[in-house]
Structures are given as C-alpha cells and as structure tokens.
C-alpha cells in the first residue's frame, strides 16, 4: 500500500516537473483580455466565445475597447472523393479552414494573418443518405472544435 502511494507521488512529481499538462481549457494572455470577435460564421463564433469564456476570458462587443480576433475567412468545403459504378458518391473529403489575425486594444497586430485547417474523409453507403448527413454534421462539428482548440493554444502563447 505504502509502496503504491510512493510510486504515485513519484509519478506525479515527474510529470509535473517535466511540464506535462492535461489538455483542457487554456487561458489566454492578460493583454488579450477582454477580447471581441469580428467576422466568421455565427455557429463558429458562438463556439469560440464559449471556449474563451470557459478559459476565464471576458468576451465583449466590438464597440468596447479591447483586443480583437478578426476572422477574415471561414470555409467549409466538401468534394466527392469516390463514386460507385452507377456514378453515385460513396466518399467525400472535407476541408475546414479559418483565417484569423489578432490585434490588441491599441490596434497593434499581435498575430498576423494565419490559417488553421482541418481535413477529414468520409466513406458511406449511397443508399443510406440520412445516415451520411448525420455523419457529415458530426464530422463538421468535430473539425470546428479542433480548430477552436488550436486557435486557443495559439492565443495562450501570445
């Protein structure tokens, strides 16, 4: 029992000593707090706002003096990847790209324009279109979440 406890304490000390951190909410720099968001589609902005608030950041409207995340592009594209002998699509590829930049409250560019992309593929049975639509929506939401997490990690390093 004591041996197991010592082993656990030693493991935890080694992990914390090497800088290991569990993935989760990442706070952003105090210089970017409060922050406003410009552009982007409504669903993406809503999820980004929620993630920022969960990390302890105050999200304000654009008329308040604050740092600003400018989402200049948010593209979600679907392309046919495979077809069957009848010419029906049996696989798609998806690319979700967000282009952003960050300026501080004084209007100084803190993060020049950069992009974050996610790419996925989906194979399905063309006879079961409804299932494919649900899978595509699930895939798109997952890509969106991953882009937001990558954006949060970038914001935490500023």
How would you explain this protein's 3D organization?
With 158 residues, the protein is of the alpha+beta class. It has one domain (27-156): Lipoprotein like domain (Double Stranded RNA Binding Domain, 2-Layer Sandwich), CATH 3.30.160. 36% of the residues lie in helices and 33% in strands. Strands 1-2-3-4 form a four-stranded mixed β-sheet, covered by helices on one side. The chain starts with a helix and ends with a helix. Residues 2-7 have low confidence and may be disordered.
| Approximate strand percentage | 25-35%
Give the CATH topology.
Double Stranded RNA Binding Domain
Named at the architecture level, the CATH assignment is: 2-Layer Sandwich
Q: Helix content range of the residues, please?
A: 25-40%
Main beta sheet strand tally, sense and closure: 4 strands, mixed
Average pLDDT over all residues: 85
Using only C-alpha atoms, the radius of gyration works out to 21 Å
Total discrete domains:
1
Order of neighbouring strands in the sheet with most strands: 1-2-3-4
Name of the top-level CATH class: Alpha Beta
Kindly report how far apart the N and C termini lie: 45 Å
Say how many strands there are: 4
Oligomeric state of this protein: single chain
Low-confidence stretches: 2-7
CATH superfamily: Lipoprotein like domain
Tally of helical runs = 3
């Amino acid at each position: 029992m004591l041996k197991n406890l010592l082993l656990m304490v030693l493991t935890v000390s080694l992990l914390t000593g090497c800088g290991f951190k569990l993935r989760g909410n990442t706070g952003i720099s105090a210089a970017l707090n409060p922050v406003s968001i410009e552009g982007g589609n409504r669903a993406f902005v809503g999820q980004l706002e929620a993630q920022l608030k969960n990390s302890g950041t105050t999200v304000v409207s654009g008329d308040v003096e604050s740092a600003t995340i400018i989402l200049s592009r948010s593209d979600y594209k679907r392309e046919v990847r495979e077809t069957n002998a009848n010419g029906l699509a049996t696989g798609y590829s998806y690319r979700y790209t967000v282009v952003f930049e960050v300026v501080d409250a004084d209007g100084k560019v803190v993060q020049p324009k950069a992009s974050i992309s996610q790419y996925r593929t989906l194979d399905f049975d063309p006879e079961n279109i409804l299932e494919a639509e649900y899978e595509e929506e699930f895939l798109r939401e997952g890509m969106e979440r991953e882009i937001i997490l990558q954006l949060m990690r970038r914001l935490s390093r500023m």
